[in-house]
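Q: Okay, next protein. This is Glycosyl transferases group 1 from Microbulbifer donghaiensis. I've checked the sequence twice, so it should be correct. Can you predict the 3D structure?
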Amino acid sequence: MRVLNIAYQQLRRYGKTRVSWAQKLTFGLIKNDHYTQVFSDRDVAAFEAPLGIRDLGVKKANRRLLETVEAFEPDLVIAGHCDMISNETLKEIKQRQPHCVIAHCNNDPLFVPSNVERIKYRAEVADAVFVSTGRRELNIFEGFGARVYHMPNPVDPSIENLDNSQRSDLSIDLLFCSNSNNFTKRLQMVKNLKDALGDSLNFKTYGSFGEAPVWGRDYDRALAQTKMGLNFNRQDTHYWYSSARMAQLAGNGILQFTSDKLNFDELLPPESVVYFNEEQDLLEKIREFHGDDAKRRAWAARARDFFQTEMNSKLYAQYIVEATTMQPFSHDYVWARDINLDGSLR
């Protein structure tokens, strides 16, 4: 199949990139033998704009996308986070390529009101919409035209290529990286943990409390020295929603702590992720696993094996292709056992 993946490709970061689910999707499509092209709306808009002022290049980026579609003739267009591309352009793609189907993938949280509206907007023109929140919370997007599905955060073995579950010689005992304080109060809990833990372990909080954020290879190096990590969303309010750090930690064999309010115990195997219900409970569990390295390694190994085997980019990409094109599922996708092929809940 010929697939065009529209999403921000971080070209102008020149290597100092964030871990990207859109890139993992491209890798997974290629591993499944789909001829895949990418189109980076933000980068094209900047490259085409006068003086490189990105907002002045939006119309040109939409025209360049239509040129790309004419040249490439995709069977499937996946519109990820590409706000510079209008629904009118996606409609035009369907008119020019009647055989082509369109998917929208959205990896952002539903507690951000603008993101809810963004998904509804795309659902008006897409054939299928995929959201990283659990399917039971996606009924608000039904009736706009698109079928609605849950998708996970995947790992890719070329990116999550560490296995810290096999190591005890790691200098960072606990890690939390962040770069956004919008819609959240999570840093208060992080501060309380730092105060309570003191010098009993090496707790790095890149991006907060005066510690510079880490990107690209600096982030890779931080992960490579980490035993345990905090998987704190900005809010813990939606079923099966997690930021991409869940996959980044699990895929690298780093034990993670996450809220029990998200119901991931219904998806992930027992004794793989550590769930907590309040701050004191979390503090006690951090101390428990810090003091029992064999237990830390066993739980982290179980999570890593599960993510690398059942939630990898190859399965992730094929699921999106099959659901969008209404092909029967070729795998028992663990995250979609409550979803029918048409996107409805079982």
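A: Here is a summary of the prediction. The CA atoms of residues 62 and 85 lie 6 Å apart. The chain has two domains: 2-154+312-336, 164-310.
Q: Noted. On to the next one.
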